[in-house]
Amino acid sequence: MKRNKILTTILALITLGFVGLMALLINNPEGKSVNQTVKQENMANKSMATALVNLRLDPFEIKTQVGQTFTVLLVFENLKQPISAADLILDYDPQSLSYVNTVNLSQDYLNPRNINENGRLVVSFVENAATSASSSLQLAQLNFSALQPGVTKIIPVINKGPKSSMVIVSGNNDNQLTSVNEVTINIK
Question: Which residue has the higher pLDDT, 139 or 63?
């Protein structure tokens, strides 16, 4: 009787070990050691965390008058790597505002396109020459004209699938843009 219990316990432990080994093999089809897989996942998470970027539209609030032109600065923050390319999509009320132009572009970037269509502005930037990372980068200035009195906003399009703003940093092909603020415009 005791012998059967011991054999049953040994068989249960062997079965448990076998099931655990099968689970590791199923979850790790490349045959890498568990430590190697965990290290690679941690490295991927670290590079992802260090690459994320914030865009600040500055100033946050603008007071202007009908007919006046005002400027919104595009300032990237939390840069750990240089920006390779950016597609920024901004929505605004075309009855209240008119896009004028993009000026004072950082010398390290080109502005190959500005598409302005019925209250949606798409502004693209690409790296012109190899750049080094800085924690902050004032990329350009966007100029708008105030058309009618009232309160309106410039609203960035972010986290809405393929038709969203995106920023690609050197060494990473995924969108790294995590946040962008709105700009409120009070027109008198």
Answer: 63
